[in-house]
Amino acid sequence: MNNLHERLAAYPADALGGIRRGIEKEGLRVLPTGGLALTPHPLALGSALTHPLITTDYSESQLELITGAHKGVQQCLDELTEVHQFVHHTLKDSGGELLWASSMPCGLPTDETIPLGRYGGSNIGRAKSVYRMGLGHRYGRRMQTISGIHYNWSLPGVTSEQYFSLIRNFRRHAFVLLYLFGASPALCPCFVEGREHRLQRMEGGSALYLPHATSLRMGRLGYQSDAQATLAVSYNGLTGYANSLHEALTKPYPAYETVGVRNPGGDYNQLGTSLLQIENEFYGTIRPKRTVRTGERPLHALRERGVEYVEVRLMDLDPFVPVGITAPTMRLLDVFLLHCLLSDSPPDTPAEIAELKQNQHLTAERGREPGLHLSRNSQSVPLTEWGAEVLAACEPLAAALDATHGTDDYSTALRDARALMAAPERTPSARVLDSIVQSHHNSFESFARQQSIAARDALLGLPWTPEQQARYLAMADESIAAQKAIEAADTLPFEEWREQYMAVKELTP
């Protein structure tokens, strides 16, 4: 604890004021009836390839809304809200589609009918679609329709070594966030059709659930990969991490070699046959990141220029708020990440990595179970007791951030989180199940559809000026022009471009 206080004292107030956070928020476009919208990405939103704030994730039906990096929590939330407003106004004017409020998907069509994201005819645009085709072959398209919130976070003056220290502690204590903010304890039966699962069906209804689950999205049924389970990536430093990824990106993987890069008709199945096609395919609760230059591979950027920020990837959409996350949640994340950065962080080991994966699955599937124990350094410890310890240790950090910003908002967010640790019935996951049972006849789809309608109505009810509309329409037009310029500038045939981009030499400085 003293170490934490000493490290905190070493950070001047203006450094803590330099924390930057940005959000990437995924969400499915759905029909008013609750089924997946199979329409193309709306042209009025701009180009999914080049728009700075609005793109698609896996599917043409899956929007991803992006903020810039902000020094203020409220400024970040305000931008996220404004982007949502534009999207909802656009969807209202083009058929009344909704943005799905839940992390677990809506009523899905057959797997092969889920439309892949399309990014135009440029080489980079085609590569993005081929990559998604590969994900479909490897994991199935349904899994890719899960949505969440990514929280991008940085602090001035932090070195790559310190960011990896943060990442190790984050992984150790990620169960706290799954418990506090997990909001996907139930799902639509269509998601697991044809798959083995241990979910229970709600009596007299259609929802499948686990009674004490926090985040099925982050459990065994969610964003997981048996193939990637063979990857024991260490976070003890940039070199080791980069070398682990390098091998996964370059070593052929037999099952994917069988799929092949192209099918007999010449169409592309995937970008490559290694365990990972590209860096983004590596799943994790948190990632070290560096902004890439045009055409640059992310691993090359990391190796050459170091870690710039971390991307927190385990946050479910909060279905009870219109944009999926609240300011208090963001403040708690800031405090939690600062704690991960400043606390002692011993090196990880293969045994600990396996232990943390088991803790993640236990918390995702049984986190609110009374008396649930996790494993800490091979010792059994009650989840709520360990979680309470972590949050108690965050107190001086919340106080420091309050002092920096002239507020008590950080301490309030932490106090509320500590109260929630002792009241599992008030967690978002418990509230989701309660609402499904009490108000939606045990139907997950009815619950999520109603929350989606409420979110749309709340956002359409906010002030929206002609100037705002004009600014976003201009941004859309600029993005379409930028996409056309990229397409016009291409000189290489796609296969030649693909071979160059996937070449081993592109991964090293």
Description:
With 509 residues, the chain is an alpha+beta fold. The chain has helices at residues 2-9, 13-16, 73-92, 123-139, 141-144, 160-181, 238-250, 254-259, 298-305, 327-342, 350-366, 383-393, 395-405, 409-421, 428-439, 444-460, 466-489, 494-502, and strands at residues 20-30, 54-56, 62-66, 98-99, 149-154, 186-187, 200-201, 208-209, 286-289, 309-315, 373-376, 379-382. The chain has a single domain (2-507), classed as Creatine Kinase, Chain A, domain 2 (2-Layer Sandwich), CATH 3.30.590. Helix content is 46%, strand content 10%. Strands 1, 2, 3, 4, 5, 9 and 10 form a seven-stranded antiparallel β-sheet that branches. Strand 11 and strand 12 (379-382) form a beta hairpin. Helix 6 (160-181) packs parallel to helix 11 and helix 13 packs antiparallel against helix 14 (409-421). The longest helix has 24 residues, at 466-489.
